[in-house]
Amino acid sequence: MRRFRIGLAQVNCTVGDLEGNTAKILRYIERAKAMEVELICFPEMAITGYPPEDLLLKPEFIADNLKNLDVIVGHSAGIAVVVGFVDSRDGLYNAAAVAYDRKLCGIYHKTYLPNYGVFDEKRYFRPGTEAPIFVISGVSIGVNICEDIWYPTGPASRQASAGAEVILNISASPYHAGKRDLREQMLGHRASEDAVILAYTNLVGGQDELVFDGGSMVLDGRGEAIARAKQFEEGLLVVDLEIEERHQGPRRGKRRRDSERERGQGPRIIVSREAHTEPKVAIPPRSVEIYDPVGEIYAALVLGTRDYIHKNGFSRVVMGLSGGVDSSLVAAIAVDALGPENVIGVSMPSRYSSEGSKTDAQLLSENLGIEMKVIPIEEAMQGYLNMLAGPFAGTQTGIAEENLQARVRGNILMALSNKFGWLVLTTGNKSEIACGYCTLYGDMAGGFAVIKDVPKTLVYELAGYKNSRAGKEIIPRSVIEKEPSAELRPGQRDVDSLPPYEALDPILKAYVEEDKSLGQIIALGFDRELVERVIALVDRSEHKRRQSPPGVKITPRAFGKDRRFPITNRYRVGVRG
Amino acid sequence: MRRFRIGLAQVNCTVGDLEGNTAKILRYIERAKAMEVELICFPEMAITGYPPEDLLLKPEFIADNLKNLDVIVGHSAGIAVVVGFVDSRDGLYNAAAVAYDRKLCGIYHKTYLPNYGVFDEKRYFRPGTEAPIFVISGVSIGVNICEDIWYPTGPASRQASAGAEVILNISASPYHAGKRDLREQMLGHRASEDAVILAYTNLVGGQDELVFDGGSMVLDGRGEAIARAKQFEEGLLVVDLEIEERHQGPRRGKRRRDSERERGQGPRIIVSREAHTEPKVAIPPRSVEIYDPVGEIYAALVLGTRDYIHKNGFSRVVMGLSGGVDSSLVAAIAVDALGPENVIGVSMPSRYSSEGSKTDAQLLSENLGIEMKVIPIEEAMQGYLNMLAGPFAGTQTGIAEENLQARVRGNILMALSNKFGWLVLTTGNKSEIACGYCTLYGDMAGGFAVIKDVPKTLVYELAGYKNSRAGKEIIPRSVIEKEPSAELRPGQRDVDSLPPYEALDPILKAYVEEDKSLGQIIALGFDRELVERVIALVDRSEHKRRQSPPGVKITPRAFGKDRRFPITNRYRVGVRG
After folding, report:
1. pLDDT band at B574 (very low <50, low <70, confident <90, very high)
2. How far is CA A471 from CA A98, A366, A465, in A?
3. B-chain residues within 8 Å CB-CB of A518?
4. What is the ipTM of this complex?
């Protein structure tokens, strides 16, 4: 056995920041060299950030990405580097470069291009067809990219069959709740089936509606995780792999046979035959605590919010504080993301605001240590009502007047944003946005919708998590216990317009995230009339969602580019049963 | 020679309206039967409408589409029907059914799946691999779908080689300016290369940001158009094709050889061997006037607006009338789309509105015969300024106050919309939206952005077109001649913030539509500093466009799903030259 030291650099890259990403990659290479790492891996498309979307259609962008790859290759003296970039030769490829000693030794092209969910890779890339083996420090290594590893008969299996001792997968795998566990399970299968060591390097950081959660890991040939990196944090995971000396006889996996081992299914590229001097001190296997399910989601929301704000050049945020649980949770997340000095709350009471709402908002801002402004909306409201007195004469007060209140609040926040350069956070949850229970240009007005993918029932769990982690009441108990209300008319309650959230949320999950039919949802135990009503609410509010700001995806299917629905859509599920 | 009568039904389908689309298809089948048509063609995915986007992920939707296909097949007594639908067998296919005498005789699966621009077909469909020939009334016919015909070596060529005398292409080809001419040119090449008659049936109608322009046509084996249907109108184009009798010897095309004719490259499916009794009276070749370039765009805007309004269940619209050329053009388009009785204009003067603006809005509404309300915004503005006096103390009046005016106007329009059920039309043009010269939740607030893909210089051309077609001044000369201004502060002019539109528009076209690099745009004859400034404006306003309502695509690349840019994007073209 010999010790082969690898480094998994789960870096937080920014889309389009080619120089910045490259500078970061060089810093990690230097850190790895200092730790006697023989091979360092960076995530999929680390040079460009992921996903660059239609920037990929600009030839200038591709050329600049290649120039930066050259810079990285130039810094590979004495260390092998695997890094994701965009290759261009008769078309574009999602590619991994293997560099060593200032030479570009070889390139792998991603085979499986995801084109579902949030992914559009077939819009840009051609699929690779080869599954080469790179011999690095005498170790046979199969490199592949993200989606490739999810297929049992994909390039990893071909590379293992062709003699790879280690599989490196570099990924930009977006987060949803529980996905880290899913990955570890899948990677365990893959490693044990192919009887190879599997090193998985994932991107970290927020990019518009996506969060990449890192959580890089190394699994041994039995499929057991021997090292895990943190989720949601940039870092370098250094692991000493135990490599069998050659000619001690082949190891055996469930599906691997001696005869396959030398079949040579892809090109074999010699990067470096000689092992480095073995590091004197072994690095003990390292693993980190894995988040509990709610804590993991909270951390995703914090990172997604922080990165959106900072990567877009903002440092401070402003938001409405209604005294409700949604805005309270968003404020708590914003404080954890940016620090209390960078969060400004605004209470904007109307004639319909309860006394409790005002005191709860005040109490929350004190608990969080943030500045709170109080700006009553009455004066502008009265102005609108006077201006509209003529056109509205003889009509009943209703949704138009209710929405005006929400829009006055939206305008106040946007005015503060325009004046002081603060980004507006919106506070709507997924249950509301799914049903259109929100006001365009009102509570939907802002730059980032922190909890737009968080169903209301999970909002409560996250609020509870925040308090229990803090060991004290940050979000006041009165906020958590009060009946949900938009407070846009006297005595208004959410249940006047929506089903109770305990029924609504599972119906929404079945319809929005799982594409279940009316019949299938009824079979889950819900009343037909109720299910039809919920489906109609979702179908008829697509136009609102289309004008929503982005927010952090935390479920398997978020609104946004994950779920592409026509606005003009006469399909009505309920009608035909 | 014998007469073979075909019908090209360019129907206006609605996405998701399976029953409505099917009912319409049945009506056209009956009309065709009455005209002794032997074969009638409907567009790509006529049953579902195009594009149904993620409705395709719902198994219930696919099943319902198949039930409706059964209904159509049941109505094919005595007539062959080719109709687009979604086939499902181990995956989904964009498919054409060939039915005759109440039997489903065969199915073609689209080979080339577009996954660029506005298209996401690889998200849903598998590609077909076969290029069958259908023998209908004894005539050998190759059926294929949209994108398939754009490739010289695609299924049409294989079908022609295998003996097809007629190629039927059914399409859902979205409009952009000049695309009809492009299609006729391409189809001419394809017909003459393969020496076949080519019948092209295209969808018509608006769907969210797309307009399908119809313009179905038939070309003879020399590539000459022998019949053309109107653009932007539903209709049935009936054409008598002259088919050579069999065994009179093969015709020769540029690339077609006798040996290929019988090679049988795909399955040969017999639908009906016998010709119908030949219709006694021949239908003379029919062609329609082709639009001039500006008129074509105007017609696209009218249809796109009308269909968005009606298909979403609205009948009336409301919009701000500023006295500027943008809102004047939008009002004219709305009147042509919906009738003057369904368009309500609102003039919302502020202290900065010029007297001319108010009288021009008044004059325009009189010329168009629409109702105009006047609602000055001063009272709400003063309310906001009082409410914000504390937080704004000591700051300079600027963009925050300017945007507030636009937002008060947006709120007024939305309040009228909420109260009376009118859809709000926004009036921003492409030049403004490209540069972010527009206010989120202000002038951007509304349901449909009619001219969001129309550059300012084209706005003027369209205004001139409207007047010249009307033979009188509908859009007042004073509107067209005044200097563009947002009128949000005293003496404000667009040129204070933006380059002159004559320079701006070609730079935007090069950058946004053609992905030209900084160097390439400078080489067109523009100042470097100017080009860098424009590119920076575009790059930094993506967040605004993301919250924009949809509008009609009329250029080769519109903002929206045609151009998918990250908001978080640090790539700066100007920086690196």
Report:
1. low
2. 48, 16, 10
3. 60
4. 0.94
Element (H, E) at A371: strand A371-374
Paired with A197 in beta bridges are A166
- Is B110 catalytic? The answer is yes
- pLDDT of residue B460 exceeding 80, the answer is yes
A283 touches chain B (CB under 8 A): no
| CA–CA distances in Å: residue B364 to residues A344, B347, B361 | 45, 11, 5
**Which residue, A102, A67, A73, is CA-closest to A86?**
A67
| Residue A560 CA: distances (Å) to CA of A44, A453, B434 | 23, 10, 21
Judged by DSSP in three states, A425 sits in strand
Q: Which of B14, B53, B59 lies closest to A517 in CB terms?
A: B59
User: Using CB atoms and an 8 Å cut-off, which of residues 374-403 of chain B contact chain A?
Assistant: 375-377, 379-384, 386-388, 390-392, 395, 398-401, 403
Q: Say yes or no: B311 contacts chain A, CB-CB below 8 A.
A: yes
Cross-strand bridge partners of residue A204: A213
With beta carbons less than 8 A apart as the criterion, state whether B404 and B437 touch: no
Q: B320-349: per-residue pLDDT in tens?
A: 999 999 999 999 999 999 999 999 999 999
- Give me Rg for the CA atoms of chain B: 27
Helix (H) or strand (E) holding B534: helix B528-539
- In whole angstroms, give the CA distance from residue A133 to residue A265: 9
Contact state of B307 with A568 under an 8 Å Cβ cutoff: yes
H-helix or E-strand spanning residue A228: strand A225-228
Does the annotation mark A105 as catalytic?
Answer: no
State mean pLDDT over B486-513.
Answer: 92
- Place A276 in a pLDDT band, splitting at 50, 70 and 90: confident
Does the beta-carbon distance from B391 to A373 stay under 8 Å? yes
Q: Is B185 helix (H, G, I), strand (E, B) or coil?
A: helix
In 3-state terms, chain B is what percent helix, strand and coil (to 5)?
40, 20, 40
A311 CA: distance to closest CA in chain B (Å): 6
Confirm or reject contact between B59 and chain A (CB < 8 A): yes
- Residues of chain A with Cβ-Cβ distance to B412 below 8 Å are 384, 387-388
Tell me the average pLDDT across B494-511: 94
Task: Tell me, yes or no, if B146 is annotated catalytic.
Answer: yes
Q: Which domains does chain B have, with CATH numbers?
A: 2-246 (3.60.110.10), 293-498+549-555 (3.40.50.620)
Top residue of B50, B203, B441, B538 to mutate, by most chain A CBs within 10 Å, is: B441
Is the pLDDT score of A250 beyond 50?
A: no
pTM: 0.95
